[in-house]
Design brief:
With 190 residues, the protein is α+β, with helices and mostly antiparallel strands. The chain has a single domain, classed as Alpha-D-Glucose-1,6-Bisphosphate, Chain A, domain 4. Helix content is 25%, strand content 42%. The protein is globular and about 45 Å long.
């Protein structure tokens, strides 16, 4: 059997285009990182993923807060309430998984870095049905790759007591899903 497969495998290797000739594809799932936060067992979760799309189109997508429900299905509402030079206040309604309910909060989004090759947007919940929510979204142009590196950091504490493992699991799932869904939207819009 091996003797019969060897010529087939050799032919497949010879007639397959080299890796450099194949179109660049974004790698698989996002890389996830957990960081401790002083004073709590809940951790700050971060996802990182490479997106095969132009920097400008991904940056435009990230800044269009009102469009988040169109590609982030748990977002029921995203409405810009106030925009100033320093920040944008966005009202979000977010459905939690496993029928855990709906959160709402006013999130203050501030662009903290904006260059031709990098974008960073930090957010903090100012009011709502959440105890604390902090986000950081960053985008970095990858010239050699032709795409961008997207990072999403999320920390959240509920108002009501909850098991840290439950909260950490929800945060972990949220940053993973956000990275995958953003990549799908950005790559599909090319």
């Amino acid at each position: 059997m091996r003797a019969r497969l060897a010529p087939i495998l050799l032919a497949a290797l010879c007639f397959t285009a080299p890796a450099a000739a194949q179109p660049a594809r974004a790698p698989g799932p996002p890389t996830l990182t957990e960081r401790p936060v002083d004073g709590t067992s809940v951790r700050r979760m971060e996802s990182e993923i490479v997106v095969q799309a132009p920097f400008e189109s991904v940056a435009r997508l990230l800044r269009d807060y009102a469009a988040y429900p169109s590609f982030l299905p748990r977002f029921r509402t995203a409405r810009v309430v106030q925009r100033t030079r320093a920040h944008t206040q966005v009202y979000f309604q977010l459905e939690l998984p496993r029928a855990l309910g709906t959160l709402w909060f006013l999130h203050e989004m501030s662009v903290t870095r904006d260059t031709a090759d990098a974008l960073e947007i930090q957010g903090i919940a100012r009011s709502g049905s959440v105890g604390r929510v902090e986000t950081t979204v960053s985008l970095e142009r990858l010239p050699a790759h032709g795409g961008v590196r997207f990072r999403f950091s999320l920390f959240g504490l509920p108002v009501l007591p909850a098991l840290p493992d439950t909260v950490n699991g929800l945060l972990r799932d949220a940053v993973r899903a956000a990275a995958i869904l953003l990549r799908a939207r950005a790559e599909g819009a090319r």
